[in-house]
Amino acid sequence: MLMRLSIEDELSYALSDDIMQCSDMTSLKTKLRTSILSINEDPEKIKSLIRILKDDYFLSKKHFNFKWLKNDNKEQARWAVEYISENKLILEEYENLPLNLIAEKNYVPIIEGIFHSLCFCEREQAKLYERFKRAWSQHKFRKKAENENKVSVSFLMKDKTKKRLQEVADFHETSMIDVIERLVNSSWEAFNEGNDSL
Fold first, then answer.
1. Which of 55, 120, 52, 45 is nearest to 89 (CA)?
2. Are residues 22 and 110 in the same domain?
3. Can you give the pLDDT at residue 13?
């Protein structure tokens, strides 16, 4: 399990609304410090909690790499904040997300921090990570298709025809989609010139 305290070590450390609503890092650090100190006056228990949280955070960080998130990508920043804020699994875990702290220049560490602090088992966290990463790839693909005025098309083809299509694509060092586009466009041009022999 990642980010789960054992029963004997578990302490009440729910963060108050005033901490979750902080709008700057300085006041957040001050309120967090006060909150941690108020957990219990036993310094050893406080150290134990911090150690457990730190160890689990770095264990999660080791398993799940967010290098694909880029601080200088404004579109990705907006998309990531929207994705995190609408994800049902994350919303079940957090009553309030510290999204008000996110600016385009610092969104990566905060998104990472939210992810690494989730109280999921490693398998559930891995599924969420893969969905998150795949959703970004799909978003990029859709955006690229929109920018290139492309639409998604789905159709059935005989297996033999598909193999031949792949051979033609390999010969021309291109994709099957590119071959189909070229064939359709050249056939359309011939058709408009009255020379279509299809």
1. 120
2. yes
3. 46
